[in-house]
Amino acid sequence: APGQAEMYAGLQELGVANGEDLKETLTNCTEPLKAIEQFQTENGVLLPSLQYALPFLDLHGTPRLEFHQSVFDELREKLLERVSAIALEGKVEERYKKLEDLLEKSFSLVKMPSIQPVVMCVMKHLPKVPEKKLKLVMADKDLYKACAVEVKRQIWQDNQALFGDEVSPLLKQYILEKENILFSNDISFLQNFFSPSPKTRRQGEVVQKLTQMIGKNVKLYDMVLQFLRTLFLRTRNVHYCTLRAELLMSLHDLEISDICTVDPCHKFTWCLDACIREKFVDNKRARELQGFLDGVKKGQEQVLGDLSMILCDPFAINTLALSTIRHLQDLVGQDTLPRESPDLLLLLRMLSLGQGAWDMIDSQVFKEPKMEAELITRFLPLLMSFVVDDHTFTVDQKLPSEEKGPIPYPSTIPEAFTKFLQENRIACEIGLYYILHITKQRNKNAFLRLLPALVETFSDLAFSDIFLHLLTGNLTLLSDEFALEEFCTSLFDGFFLTACSRKENVHRHVLRLLLHLHHKVAPAKLESLQKALEPTKQSGEAVKELYNQLSEKLELRKPSPAEVTETPSMELPLPTVPTPASR
Q: Region entry Disordered: which residue ranges (predicted)?
């Protein structure tokens, strides 16, 4: 049987008798019992004292197989311990010479399941397994699967395609995990996509597996970065940028200096990581980050491509944008213009570098994007004027009202604001974060005023998953407003429904929101929304599933017949009972 052959694989090459030899001996002999006894003597454990002990075990009914198996297991454990010890003792050349000799002697038994762990252990402790042996392992699927990651690294570093096959499913899993969080049915302003700390995120399965696969191997680390760059270029998916930063910081946590010292982004990423942890860029760290950017020397501009990818990580963008909004509010209180704040200008510089990552890597032109003066001289003061409008309105409300009546909240949006959101990427990003900020403050007036500007934004950023995930979470703070027709019409008809039919992700986010807040929406509005959100034939499974969940919830909310005061007409026709004939 093939299984039997595997069991004895390689013994003959070492001159050790195996099952086949016994079979041959028994086939060609006249006295089988004597032949068996002779085979046992020749191949048994050559220990004189055993001659008397074995019959004693026979008397206890212990099979010889069981005895030999336990001796074998014990010896194998001792050998494994010895191999691990050799790998640590004596001079480097000597220890590896011993292991190489051992590998040479034992490699022919590598397919023998009982000996395989020893051969694998020897290879694991060799920093350079002979090329020939690596090729044999690589060519055999089962051997490749069984060998330690230390050996696989040696195979991978010269076989990019094979390494790519190993890494690819992990990268797919990573992207899927991120999307599952963005589309999660749990909607809350307290817990969102950006809640987990960087340290917690790095404990994720994919980052840990990749970290282990790379070990201290700079070549493999470079390969993973190359995969991430290529996938980012191909898909524009910013989660690959997150993984780029998480992987570097995971190696940093393990103090893998072989890699950290050669990655030119290491110190910048480390500093930015601390800002992301605090969700704010303080003055001290701002100076450090600026030092790194200003320190990019002539001829080393290519590092900007990597730095831009680190800054394009949504967690970095989130931190920079939140810090920008906070700075703008402080400037209002200090009567200072944006152009007079170096800290604010640095935040914009980093936002600009992050948002320009794809273009830079695609064009291979490594220079910082030019900042548009109007962003600083017109757009940011415009945002500050909105903050002032809010302060003014709040103060007006507190003043004793005279005959002229209460001053209404400004309802128009300056045309320039809408134009900036459509044409300038950085302005759009900051504008969206300002809208998230006012929603979190439960500022319904400001929210309804600026909402129409979101229908058309740069590259449809207002309909991106990250923004909609954050917006739906913050809208739970305005849940009581959903009972009002005007609010729902502005939010659903004026914003969400304008994109539902052309963007499946928007459809999903609206359904997520309604699943959470349907009980707050006026029944008539809910009914029209249910009709408007009905999936089409083209809709994906996720939309259909969410819609079904919503329909079930709404079905449960309908009053039961018992609650209806009028006697409902019987819906089913009564069976016709023949009336007794009047005789």
A: 557-583
Chain CA centroid to CA 136, Å: 35
Cβ contacts of 499 within 8 Å, gap of 6 or more: 455, 460, 463, 506
Per the structure block, which two tokens stand in for 63? 């099979």
Amino acid present at 385: S
How far are the Cα atoms of 96, 266, 292, 514, 537 from residue 510, in angstroms, in the given order? 63, 40, 42, 6, 18
How does 155-175 read in b/e, with b if 16+ C-beta sit within 10 Å? Answer: bbeeeeeebbeebeebbeebb
Dist CA 513 CA 496 (whole Å): 11
Sign of the Cα torsion 474, 479, 480, 486 reads positive
What are the C-alpha distances in Å from 116 to residues 19, 72, 215? 18, 13, 24
Give dist(CA 159, CA 177) in Å, integer: 28
Successive 10-residue mean pLDDT values, the chain, 583 residues = 53 63 75 74 67 72 74 72 72 72 71 74 78 80 85 89 95 97 91 95 96 95 96 97 97 94 94 96 93 89 93 97 96 92 95 95 92 94 93 81 72 94 96 97 95 96 97 96 94 95 95 94 92 93 95 80 49 48 45
Six token digits for residue 187: 């909607």
CA distance linking residue 344 with residue 284, whole number of Å: 13
pLDDT of residue 134: 78
Give the Cα separation of 491 and 99 in Å (integer): 71
Q: End-to-end CA distance of the chain: give it in Å, rounded.
A: 93
SS3 359: helix
Report d(CA 316, CA 305) in Å as an integer: 15
The answer to whether the CB of 538 falls within 8 A of the CB of 500 is no
Q: Are 144 and 38 in contact (CB under 8 A)?
A: no
Q: Burial of 121 by CB count in 10 Å (0-12 exposed, 13-18 middle, 19+ buried)?
A: buried
Dihedral over Cα of 342, 348, 351, 353: its sign: negative
**Residues in the chain, how many?**
583
Radius of gyration of the chain from Cα atoms? 36
Which residue bears the tokens 């760290």?
285
**What's the confidence (pLDDT) of residue 137?**
78
d(CA 526, CA 519): 9
Phi, psi of 525, deg, nearest 5: -65, -40
Separation between Cα atoms, residue 341 and residue 323, nearest integer Å: 13
The residues, ordered by sequence, that sit 6+ positions from 269 with a Cβ below 8 Å of its Cβ are 245, 248, 249, 252, 310
d(CA 252, CA 249): 5
pTM for this entry: 0.84
> What stretches of 456-579 show up as alpha helix (H) in DSSP?
465-475, 485-488, 497-500, 504-517, 523-532, 541-557
User: Please, how many CA atoms are within 13 Å of residue 340, restricted to the half-sphere of its CB?
Assistant: 8
- Give the closest residue to 164 by CA, choosing from 212, 217, 211, 228: 228
Taking the C-alpha atoms of residue 216 and residue 250, their distance in angstroms, rounded to an integer, is 12
